[in-house]
Hints:
Blueprint: H1 3-10, E1 14-19, E2 22-25, E3 36-40, H2 47-52, H3 55-64, H4 72-85, H5 89-105, H6 112-128, H7 132-145, H8 149-167
Signal peptide: 1-24
InterPro entries: TPR-like_helical_dom_sf
Keywords: Signal
Amino acid sequence: xxxxxxxxxxxxxxxxxxxxxxxxxxxxxxxxxxxxxxxxxxxxxxxxxxxxxxxxxxxxxxxxxxxxxxxxxxxxxxxxxxxxxxxxxxxxxxxxxxxxxxxxxxxxxxxxxxxxxxxxxxxxxxxxxxxxxxxxxxxxxxxxxxxxxxxxxxxxxxxxxxxxxxxxxx
Length: 170
């Protein structure tokens, strides 16, 4: 993994919101405070298109990037978010799980905070696949290693929704 990839991982945090199967770029827009949030890794081919909502273009650029340009972890984190945005949950599950597997095994990933991206994005994918408990477990894993607001938000949001369902309040 080259130095640019590691620097890209360290500086990566573009937030997207996910509500049902729709996500929107939050920069310069009013963000729905109740939506679940996903992360994209910057400096990955296709990220600009993904940010702009050109999902197919972004996925194509990400997929066609050389392994020398982008590492598997960063590629799969962004593919996970893109496929979720397209509601292609089969491909999203594969990319999200591959990102988590890389996060667990790659020594070159610079910090636990960066590893949290994979768990967070997989949590949103699981949530949209109606796996609430799996989503909560992934959100908690992300929040455990990084106390960033995005992870706490997703945990608190899902716990509140689950508690509302348990008490019968809609």
